[in-house]
């Protein structure tokens, strides 16, 4: 068994409470990709969070392991320890510098997407004007491939995501994205994007976010329904789970300094009718209910295991081992 949580968010604060990680471990999660920054976060904040998270994970080897390979994830799972990797949401922290990719990789960042809802100099966001992948973006896809980092297309514009998947020499994932055919929302992805992802050998990990599942109080059954749709469309070997639970802690202010405008990054016109703060997420316990929920929809136990982690284990194993200096 291998339960792979492709994306989760702690407050972007050096002192963020790690108890949500213990909750994930208790719910049976073996690996979690933890966000360490988005396009709106200054690099100084991201580095501060990376330094603190790395040190604090290392200080608790009985609970966590900052891993650098699939073999280490399997060893951690056998030991009952939660394996942790980091991800970036957006290319702005790369400072338009391809060699920043390998630096972040060396700090534990294992997956990245290039835009966070809005356009930048590299890629398009899913809630902005479509332009396609820029020439700088093409160089950065190559840098991600060479660094052995997972190329993610969540939050990315449709045409731009198709450009990225065509340009990548390695499988590409959506770490947290849901099918548009089931719920009409600009953050959800078309059948064409899902097919293109599968064609790279990649995995679409469905989220547990209320707005993207089209329900106010999302459950394991909702997540399973979206996973089953992707399985039906492109095959069960291309489906994963990235619940995207945002573990907010009110006592910590994780907003970046400066003129941060939530209405820019989560535009009301794009379907964020309620402020992002009002979004709800499937509970951590979803992990304990997913296998049965998938079986109710006709997936076998083995197929459920692929969805819950073995597909991402396969793809990560393929991509991460390529790392070049
Ligand atoms: Zn996200």
Short description:
It contains 12 helices and 10 strands. Helix 9 (220-234) packs across helix 11.
Word description of this protein:
- By secondary structure, the chain is α/β, with parallel strands linked by helices.
- The chain is 39% helix and 13% strand.
- It has twelve helices and ten strands.
- It has helices spanning 19-26, 43-58, 70-79, 100-106, 135-147, 158-167, 191-199, 210-213, 220-234, 262-265, 286-296, 301-320, and strands at residues 4-9, 31-38, 64-66, 82-89, 109-113, 150-152, 172-173, 204-206, 239-241, 245-246.
- Strands 1, 2, 3, 4, 5, 6, 7 and 10 form an eight-stranded parallel beta sheet that branches.
- Strand 3 (64-66), helix 3 and strand 4 form a beta-alpha-beta unit.
- The mean pLDDT is 94.
- Bound molecules: zinc ion.
Features:
12 helices, binds zinc ion, alpha/beta, globular, 39% helix, 10 strands, two-stranded parallel sheet, 325 residues, 8-stranded parallel beta sheet
